[in-house]
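User: Good morning. I'm curious how fe (ii) ion would be positioned relative to this chain. Could you predict the structure with it bound?
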Amino acid sequence: MTLTPALTGNHPLRPLPFNPATLSGLSERLIVSHHENNYGGAVRILNRVEQELAGITKDTPPLVVAALRERELTFRNSKNLHEAYFGNLGRRGDMSSTLARALTETYGSVGRWEEHLRLTAMGLGGGSGWVILGFELDSGALRTVSTGNHKETLSNAVPLLVLDMYEHSYHLDFGAAAAKYIDAFWQNVNWEEVTTRLERARLAQQALSSGS
Ligand SMILES: [Fe+2]
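Assistant: Good morning! Here's the predicted structure, ligand included:
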């Protein structure tokens, strides 16, 4: 297994995995702007921060290193979460029975989980943050969490479904009407991708828990 160097400073901008003109209720202008400016900005800044970190020496002031490490974590997580967000958009498939069963076991019903997701997202409306359905690698539990910035994600969890609630993800189309954006997001979920992530996370959990 070849490990990636820690500070390459050359992360590529991943193209959108769907045609942005084909989403339902989310405009091409919104998606392209979000992808190029917000996600793209995160990748470009992360690359610059990695280049700066690659050059630190014993003479670099600790406060400079600390500031660079903070920016590194912010923009690495922003990059990863945006890639997961765009990856679970594109409107492919219906919710699989695998995912529906997991959500029902965890929340009582799929509808009850959807309620949790929507109410959690509305809690961030007018502010900013992420809503994430995550799979905990230690317990195997599904968790629905919200974060106020890029750095507050649940540790030891694999994101299954990611909803961007920063205003840049909806303001162009909906102004402050966050509920309309959440409706449109729901219409465009790529359930095939969410199920694939669940299946992979379960394999990872089995591998991590074997022998313990
Ligand atoms: Fe975003």
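The CA atoms of residues 104 and 110 lie 5 Å apart. The beta strands are 130-136, 142-147, 157-164.
Let me know if you'd like a different ligand tried.
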